[in-house]
Specification:
CATH topology of the largest domain: Rossmann fold
Order of helices and strands: EHEHEHHEEEHEHHHEEEEEEEEEE
CATH superfamily of the largest domain: HUPs
Largest sheet: 6 strands, antiparallel, barrel
Number of domains: 2
Number of strands: 17
Distance between the termini: 46 Å
CATH architecture of the largest domain: 3-Layer(aba) Sandwich
Length: about 375
């Protein structure tokens, strides 16, 4: 029987994946240990990959008579995900670390471990679909449950990775998944979904950045474009350069933010841009947040190797964003430009733009 390595987080989704695939594959369950309590002292039971999560995953694997392992990927996670997260904020960007975790940990290091264990496939609990086209190229598609679709965070997958990945939940709803878990008596059948960034469970990104950057200061500053501490206070300004007040440090802000500014004005103010070079945050009116174009770098294309002509697409500029009609212009091997039919609000450097053709993911990149 063909072997599959199941990425088990201790949650209900990956547990049901293990149950479904056990019918067809010789399955091994595994959890990625990504950090320690010393790395993240504020870690609690609301995050993924906690000790209680590992025990839940182990119990489910045991009930399915599957071997279960915990892989220590702490060093790789710090470099590939947490360092990148901190550096992005230090440089005035707003990253999505879940995309980096999928890209560098789950579909790179975890897949490599699967090869070492002689597994032909890995499987995850993502709500998305993979299918070959008529020419044998593997396509990434949205999950049929549009309320749970996670194709946005998978846009960086390569053809070799897509060919070896199983996503059994892509054609299911969350309710169906929970019913299966309850019918099997899984200990986590009613466990709530993790909504937080795992290494900043309290949502205090600025606090995490300050603590983490202090512990890895020489390494981070060696590749940072910021010459001074980005957590230091600075000035709020308007588009003309007029000083409006003082900010707490650029890591506290993101494009489009209104709450927590502490500025009194005759009309609501929003963050328009962030400049780490002079440590300023520019504020303005809501209508000033709209833009009709963006550029993305570090791109990955799934449906083709490159596009020599403009392509009509639907583009998402953040996870919760509804896809919008646009035109893609590939500028070189590592970047493309997007022109929207209608201006979009708060296009944010550091976030991913993912482009679609209906339910097919064309590709994506990081907004610059």
């Amino acid at each position: 029987m063909t072997k599959a390595l199941i990425a088990m987080s201790g949650g209900v989704d990956s547990s049901v994946v293990a149950y479904l695939l056990k019918q067809e594959y010789d399955c091994i369950g595994a959890m990625m240990k990504l950090y320690t309590n010393d790395d993240i002292p504020e870690m609690d039971s609301k995050t993924c990959c906690s000790l209680s999560d590992a025990e839940d995953a182990r119990q489910v694997a045991a009930s399915l008579c599957m071997p279960f392992y915990v892989f220590n990927f702490t060093d790789g996670f710090a470099e590939a995900v947490m360092d990148r997260f901190v550096l992005a904020y230090q440089n005035g960007q707003t990253p999505n670390p879940c995309i980096d975790c999928n890209r560098f940990m789950k579909f790179e290091r975890f897949l490599k471990r699967a090869t070492e264990l002689e597994c032909s496939h890995i499987a995850t609990g993502h709500y998305a679909r993979i299918a070959p086209d008529a020419n044998g190229r593997y396509l990434l598609k949205t999950g049929l449950d549009v309320t749970k679709d996670q194709s946005y965070v998978l846009y960086a997958m390569t053809q070799p990775q897509l060919s070896r990945t199983l996503l059994p939940l892509g054609e299911m709803t969350k309710d169906e998944v929970r019913r299966i878990a309850e019918a099997q008596g899984f200990v986590n059948a009613k466990k709530r979904d993790s909504q937080d960034i795992c290494f900043a469970p309290d949502g205090d990104y600025a606090g995490f950045i300050q603590r983490y950057a202090s512990s890895r200061h020489p390494k981070l500053n060696a590749v940072s474009n910021v010459g001074q501490n980005p957590c230091r206070p600075g000035k709020f300004i308007d588009a003309t350069g007029k000083i409006l007040g003082n900010h707490r440090g650029i890591t506290h802000y993101t494009i489009g933010q209104r709450k927590g500014l502490g500025i009194s004005a005759a009309h609501p103010l929003f963050v328009l841009s962030i400049s780490p070079q002079d440590n300023t945050v520019t504020l303005g009116k809501s209508e000033e947040l709209f833009s009709a174009a963006l550029t993305a770098r570090d791109i990955n294309l799934i449906v083709a190797d490159r596009f020599d002509a403009p392509v009509r697409v639907q583009a998402k500029i953040r996870y919760s964003h509804a896809p919008q009609p646009a035109t893609l212009h590939q500028t070189d091997a590592d970047s493309f430009a997007i022109e929207f039919d209608n201006p979009q609000r708060a296009i944010t450097p550091g976030q991913a733009v993912v482009v679609y053709d209906g339910d097919i993911v064309i590709g994506g990149g990081t907004i610059i």
